[in-house]
Known about the structure:
Elements: E1 11-16, H1 17-30, E2 35-39, H2 41-45, H3 49-58, E3 63-66, H4 69-77, E4 83-86, H5 95-100, E5 104-107, H6 110-123, E6 127-132, H7 147-159, E7 163-169, H8 181-199, E8 206-210, H9 212-217, E9 225-226, E10 253-258, E11 261-265, E12 270-271, E13 277-278, E14 283-288, E15 305-308, E16 311-316, E17 324-327, E18 342-346, H10 356-362, H11 367-372, E19 380-383
Bound molecules: pyridoxal-5'-phosphate (PLP).
Amino acid sequence: MNDPSRPVLPAEAEVDLRAISANVASLTRHAPSAEVMAVVKADAYGHGLEPSARAARAGGATWLGVAQIAEALRLRAAGDTGRVLSWLHVPGDAFTDAVAADVDLSANATWGVDEIAAAARAAGRTARVHLKIDTGLSRAGASADDWPALVDHALTAQADGLLEVVGIWSHLAWADDPKHPTTDRQAEAFEAALDVAHARGARPEVRHLANSAAALTRPDLHYDLVRPGLAVYGLSPVPDLGGPADFGLRPAMTLRARLALVKQVPAGSGVSYGHAYTTPRATTLGLVPLGYGDGVPRAAGNCGPIWVAGRRHTIAGRVSMDQVVVDLDGRPDVAEVRAGDLVVLFGDGRDGQPTAQDWAEAVDTISYEIVTRIGSRVPRTYLDAGS
Ligand SMILES: *Cc1c(COP(=O)(O)O)cnc(C)c1O
């Protein structure tokens, strides 16, 4: 910030890579008998894929998880050579590129097994496949009815030397409520699917079921590998049970900006589009250069928490595409607030700054969405071991 040769950024998402490494290390301690797959899909939940992945590896993630093959290929292009699983594919997807790049692939239907086998033939190497069973989320994953045929189909391709069934896995619907009976029912369905696969000859290297919430609260469901995403970035997947610090985590992202203008207005001034806020008194307004074009939820009008030069305020009026306004009324030091002063929308919560969880509660969503939706116009800047 003080480097005179470098222009000041109007806004930035500062990502502390040391926090990501430490969070993964903390997760390895929560799951001592399992390996950790850091989930880095969706640009690492908005934190930036490649740097976040490197930080997760440094913290002890022996696996990385992504939704799409393109994300896995970006990791390989960045030089990552460890185990990477990609799990959400469509017919005709880039399976050959994935197999050639040594990416593990999920399959949940026989067409997927067929396309992966064909890709293995084309790439001239054996593919590694994780078969996914739907244990009660009714999303990705083969139904219990289709499971035996899927296992048999994959084992036939394995016998042909085209692929290896290295994983069997599923995903939980209610892990954010660790006592919800659905989780135990899903665990039973998972056990049943493992038994079916074993009886038919499958000998997977890894069985995996647990997301962040289960990694932190259900040690009985860790199996061989846990797949935390949110917790890697230092946010609590079970905010009703505890905040990040209660689980040994620290939020990695701080969304910050600089005041673009500070000015006085009379009482009764309508603020921003539609005048959804009117100044009750003569006051000082601050202009913040972040809006819904940057991923600030438009629903945060008149309710989004915002920290300006050391104090907490609330967004005044509607969120615009590029900017929001803050009423600085009531602060004793208002005369000292200047354009260029620091604004924090959310961070790790130190010094009373709002958190992504505070934002989630203000606009009735989850912290996942708050960090992941931060747009590409906001530069990501990184703090690392050298910072
Ligand atoms: C996103 C995702 C995860 C990580 O979930 P968190 O709740 O962020 O820990 C794990 N597994 C699958 C299949 C996912 O899609």
